Amino acid sequence: MSFDVLEVAIRYGAVGVVNTLANGLLLYCFMTCTTLPSAVSVTLTFLVCMAFQFSANRSFTFRASGRISVQLLRYFAMAGLNYLLTLVVIYALVDMMRQAAITGVVVSTVLTAATGFLLSLVWVFQR
User: Which long-range contacts (CB under 8 A, 24 or more apart) does 74-80 make?
Assistant: First the structure.
């Protein structure tokens, strides 16, 4: 792994940590400080954090240029793939193999972080 890829991976991880913290804080605020239904709170939080993650990874992590419309389409495709990967991992580990739910969450989080990084590097934001 070259130093450049390692540096990008560290930035990617930092964006992920910030996004996760923002997700928790924003969802908490929506659910405790407003009268919004929980489904609306979750949806707003998801949309805000997805927009943040795309923007931060585009500008900070990968320092990408190019057509944002193409990158957005690829980003949504990648998010869909990661969603399907999560479903498969949870089904296999929790439903079929009777592992604890947290095991499925940890494994799917590691796998989607890795696939998200690799796809972002070579396809979504093409370095």
Answer: 74/119, 74/123, 74/124, 75/120, 75/124, 78/115, 78/116, 78/119, 78/120, 78/123, 78/124, 79/50
Question: What band does 16 get if pLDDT is binned at 50, 70 and 90?
Answer: very high
Amino acid at 13: G
The closest alpha carbon to 22, from 66, 67, 63, 53, belongs to 53
Is the pLDDT at 110 greater than 70? The verdict is yes
Within 8 A by CB and 6+ apart from 84, the residues are none
Kindly list the distances between the CA atom of residue 60 and the CA atoms of 8, 14, 57, in Å, as whole numbers in the listed order: 9, 10, 5
pTM of the model: 0.90
